[in-house]
Structure formats: structure tokens, C-alpha cells
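Example (one chain per record):
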Amino acid sequence: MLRNLTEYHWAERIDEALLLLARLDVRTVALAGGTALLASNNDDIEAVVDLRDLGLSTVTEDMRGVHIGAMTTLQQLMQHPLSSSIACGILSQAAHCSAPSHAIRNSATIGGTLALGVASHADILTVLAALEAQAVVRSGSRTEVSLNGGMLERSGAGYSGIVYKGKQERRLDAASVSKERLPNELIIDVVMPRFGQQVQGAFARISNTPTGVALLNVALVVTIEQDQLRRVRVVFGGGDMAPVRCVSVEQVLEGQALQTVRNMQSLDALLQKGLMAFRPTTDRYASGGYRKASAVQLMRQVCEAVLTKHVSIAV
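Predicted structure:
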């Protein structure tokens, strides 16, 4: 319950929402899907700004990349044709796994999920990190000043109550939004590079139940050129563990021939070598030792999935 909530604003323009969030005298937060905010016990919140009418629920692609509006729900993202076409559909797959029910996916938004971070336990955070996604955040300010009138040496009229409105915009890596975003910053957009047919992807997870929180998950994104693995991205996440790139695994897979990766013994040797430097954290869901032991199994799954998808596309 938000016991001290006294204001509810239904913003119709982004600038309006930014000015409300910029207030220092009233603790104001953005209301996206509401799945987390309405269930919170934060008594500091005095006002909310509803974002539903800001037109931020689109998924588009242009020459600059793929753009996902912050108010796009996980269900919309899961069903959008563009999501299914990116890296063999891992974005759509992760959106489905990120919430246990259709009702929650219809409410939870991509912007709200990023703002909540690992507390959301959403698998999509791992996939967004592997896709090198960034969140566009914007803040606004409003300053009122008074200009004095003219002097004897220089005539001029006096003006009071002049308002200057300013906006600032920056990009944050999707994996670090919850830690780096300031309270007055609004997530507007999620952007990622464009991906061609040569870019393959796979996602895998381990959990106690089919709809339970992932104890460990992994996303693999790779470009296959001339039957070799190029531009390999491997990201692990799950539970309360923030998404983390496993550069050591990326390095051992980079440049490997598909024939080598198809050989199970060769693949296992590469993965064992790459995962030696992997140091997953321990939390209430799983120990670091369990995650490290499970990482080989998950990596084997995503590598096999990428190879299978590559064959089907080639055929």
C-alpha cells in the first residue's frame, strides 16, 4: 500500500511527465505497468505519474537500430514479429519466460522491468545485455528567474517569472539501468543494433519449476561468417545476480570453426577452459558453486541450439 500517496497525474506529454518527476518538494515516481509499484510498501511516495498516454508502446526498426518503447508490455514484445526475427527469437523467448502468467506479461513493461533491475527476476535482462541494448533516459528541469529592470546607464524593462525549461538525455547499458538511473530520469526507449540473418542467438535457463525464478540463465549471441563464430557475446544472469558478460568464454569461442563446435568433446574442452574464470555470486536462490557447475550444461545447450538454427536457416 502507498499510504502517503496524495497525487495521481495522468501525463499526456513527455515534457509534462518530466517536470512532475523533477519536483523536489513532492516525492514523485513514474507509473508504468504497476506490477511492482502498486505492491510496494514505500511510504515515501507522495505522487505518481501515469505514463500510459505518452505513446511509448511501439516496437520499430530504422537505419539506427531497433527501438522498443518503454511502455511496451512483455506480452506485446513477445508477440511482435520483430522480436521473433532478432537473433532467432531470443528476445521473444525471454519476454515469455520473464513473467509466469499472461496477465502479468500484459501489465509489466520493458521500462518498468529495467527500472526494477534484478529485483524483477526477469530473464529478459540477460538477453538485452547480450544484444548490447541500451536504455534512453531523459530528465527535465524548470527554473524560474527574475530579470531586473534597466539602470540609468542602460534602459530596459524588468521581467519576472520567466520560466526556462531544459531537457537532458543519455544512454545507459540495459544491465545497469536500475543502478545508474537518477530518480528524475524517465526511461523513454530501449535501443539495440540491427541484426542480420547471420546473427544467431539462443537462450537457456535452469529453475526449480517451469515458471519459477531462474537459478541461472544464459544468452548467447553470435555472428556466423564463413563457417566460423564471430562477435561472440555470452551473458549469464538469474536470481538476484545481475547480468554479467563472460568474456573468457567469448574469447575461447571467438573464431572457432563450426566443425570444432559440433564435436562434443572439443566443445566441452573449450567451455571448461572458458568457464575457469567464471565467478558467479551466491544468493537466496542458488550458490555460486551450483551456478558454476550448471554453466557448462547451459552453455552446451545454447551452442547446440545455435548450430541447429544455423542449419535450418541454411537449408
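Caption: The two ends are 55 Å apart (CA to CA).
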